[in-house]
Automatic annotation (TrEMBL):
It comes from the Bacteria. InterPro entries: Leucine_aapep/pepB, Macro_dom-like, Peptidase_M17_C. It comes from Ornithinibacter aureus. This is Probable cytosol aminopeptidase. Coiled coil: none annotated.
């Protein structure tokens, strides 16, 4: 049997829907492994003893609900788990997991799904008897969270990336006929896992050429058109930013373009261009980072991984607008050819930039891709995603990302999508007061504004120089793109923050 690529095909449960819980239990009794099967039900904030979902699930097993609920007194706090073991051989399952959903908000359902996804890793079958209590968006939040939390980062062995902790083999949602809703939730979460796996790949494997090859493979399986520029083509066509940042590396830069074209698209179909920062490792360049700051820099290409994952999911989710992804890929390394502070770099389109700090390389590669999108692709909307500034992390921490937008309605739409998926965005100003700090005596614009503060703002203002008059938004995920713990919907490492947000926004655009 050929080995499955666990990066391009992240490990997830096989999800399905059965309207009737009794039928699902009968199927389990008829051949599935009761020892490896769990039944999940929920308890709400009012009174767990009167919770209809838990009662129905227990009654279907032939268990006296009042006795069980009174004995175990399950917590109703969001995500709190109560495990009820059942006698072997007496029931279709050996364990019932009661999970609290507190006030029944989408956030509470997301916490519940995350707790269940993590608790059921390694099981053969999980029956999610939750749909009778979760309506609409709550069910989506639950399923997405369960998929995300069931995943753990691969381990790199002599055989390559290997899954160590597997999610449940099969997951069945009962009490609903909304198979399409469940399938879409799984697809969004699986896209986020694709972004995570690529971001967690060690950088001695993951250089720009390797990531471009992964993009080609993903494009083939996802019905996308793809184009890749190598270093000679980049130099010939004037992508000076990518060439400058990659000049100190033994592995040259790449630019990748991926195109989703929906069925029936015409010239009038809106085109969204997504741009992702893809620094496959960031030493800081000649202005080298301290050791602590360099740890984790393999995830500095998360923006590119997210954009790749989003465009790849568009066909499966039926996104009705044209979507182009640009992956700006380079390694920021150190040798005698490295770009220097004080250099003047000519970006795509001819605009010159004075380099102030070689560790602010992300905005340089993004500038090339944004300028190309503006000049060559005629986007209706232009959005970039990047682990860009420490200032964003300092300002908003690790759970909220700043969004900068040239149009209030665009920013609000992205914020609303984030509220739906639990990926919170906070609007930040493109404060013109800071713009003069980017003036340069030797070039069209300076690429950093030392000594004025507002580092996330000045970075966004720099990027705005390259988008022309386009509707444009910038997501700085430097804080939210990485997690130090395995908790909630995140595994330790790259989070893929923004993947589901962008997909929901695109799905709602048509």
């Amino acid at each position: 049997m050929p080995r499955v690529d666990v990066l391009r095909h992240p490990a997830t449960s096989s999800w399905s829907v059965l309207p009737d819980l009794g039928a699902a239990l009968a199927a389990t009794s008829g051949g599935s492994d009761p020892e490896g099967t769990a039944l999940v039900a929920v308890v709400g904030a009012d009174d767990a003893l009167s919770d209809t979902g838990a009662r129905t699930a227990l009654a279907a097993l032939g268990v006296t609900a009042d006795d069980v609920l009174a004995t175990f007194e399950p917590s109703t706090s969001a995500g709190a788990l109560t495990t009820i073991p059942l006698a072997p051989g007496a029931h279709a399952v050996r364990r019932v997991l009661l999970v609290g959903v507190d006030d029944g908000s989408d956030a509470a359902w997301r916490s519940a799904g995350a707790a269940i996804g993590r608790a059921t890793r390694g099981r053969s079958r999980v029956l999610h008897a939750v749909a009778g209590d979760a309506g609409g968006q709550a069910l989506v939040a639950y399923v997405e969270a369960a998929v995300l939390a069931s995943w753990s980062s691969p381990r790199w062995t002599r055989k390559g990336p290997t899954v160590v902790t597997h999610p449940a083999s099969e997951a069945v949602v009962t009490g609903t006929e909304e198979a399409a809703t469940v399938a879409a939730a799984v697809a969004r979460a699986r896209a986020q896992l694709l972004a995570r796996g690529l971001s967690m790949t060690p950088s001695n494997t993951k250089n720009p050429a390797w990531l471009a090859r992964q993009a080609r493979a993903v494009a083939k399986q996802s019905h996308l058109d793809v184009r890749v520029w190598d270093e000679r083509q980049l130099a010939r066509e004037g992508f000076g930013g990518l060439i400058a940042v990659g000049s100190g590396s033994a592995t040259p830069p790449r630019l990748v373009q991926l195109d989703h074209v929906p069925d029936g698209a015409t010239a009038a179909t809106p085109r969204v261009v997504l741009v992702g920062k893809g620094i496959t490792f960031d030493t800081g360049g000649l202005q080298v980072k301290p050791v602590d700051g360099m740890v984790g820099m393999k995830t500095d290409m998360s923006g590119a991984a997210i954009v790749l994952a989003v465009v790849a999911a568009c066909h499966e989710l039926g996104v009705a607008v044209r979507v182009t992804g640009l992956l700006a890929l380079a390694e920021n390394a150190v040798d005698g050819a490295s770009y220097r502070p004080g250099d003047v770099v000519t970006q795509y389109g001819g605009r010159t930039v004075e380099i102030g700090n070689t560790d602010a390389e992300g905005r340089i590669v993004l500038a090339d891709a944004l300028a190309y999108a503006d000049a060559a692709l005629d986007p209706t909307v232009l959005v970039d995603v990047a682990t860009l500034t420490g200032a964003a992390r300092i300002a908003l921490g690790r759970t909220i990302a700043p969004v900068f937008a040239t149009d209030a309605a665009l920013g609000a739409a992205l914020e609303a999508a984030g509220a739906t998926t639990g990926e919170t965005l906070w609007p930040m100003p493109l404060a013109q007061t800071y713009r003069r700090a980017l003036d340069s005596d030797v070039a069209d614009v300076a690429h950093i504004a030392p000594g004025v503060g507002g580092g996330a703002v000045t970075a966004a203002l720099f990027l705005r120089e390259f988008v022309g008059d386009r509707l444009w938004a910038h997501l700085d995920i430097a804080g939210t793109g990485r997690s130090d713990v395995d908790a909630g919907t995140s595994a330790k490492g790259a989070t893929g923050f923004g993947t589901r947000l962008l997909l929901r926004w695109l799905e709602e655009m048509a």
